[in-house]
Every structure is written in C-alpha cells, then in structure tokens.
Amino acid sequence: MDRTKIHPLILISLFINAIAMGMFAYENNNENNIGYTVTFIIICLLFIALTIYGIVRNSKINRTNK
Questions:
Q1: Boundaries of every domain in the chain
Q2: pLDDT tens for the chain, residues 1 to 66
Q3: Which of 52, 51, 21 is closest to 39 using CA atoms?
Q4: Residue 17 and residue 57: Cα distance in Å, rounded?
C-alpha cells in the first residue's frame, strides 16, 4: 500500500492554529483563567507535534521514493 503525503497547506494551517492556541493561552493567562490556559497550551503542543510529525513523514516518503 502506497503511503500518501500530507498536503503542505494542511501542515501550514496546523502551524497557524498552534500559534492561535498559544495566543489564546497567553490571553487567558493574563486574565488568570488557569484552566483555559492549560487547555490551550496542551492543544498548542498537540498541533505543533502534529505539524512536526507531518513534516517528518513527508520527508521520509520523499526519501523512499527517490
């Protein structure tokens, strides 16, 4: 079964969403909403991890195809 690459626009949108979640976490930290801050930090880290995974996966697929 062929492995398909993750589209670069999806990776870019994940990264932009990670930045937005980080900004929401910062705003909620300033308002002393610790629960929301922790939640948005976890989501931000998840999105960053998914972006890195997608980049690594795409580079592995590119290397195996050559």
A1: 8-59
A2: 578 999 999 999 999 999 999 999 999 999 999 999 999 999 999 999 999 999 999 999 999 887
A3: 21
A4: 20
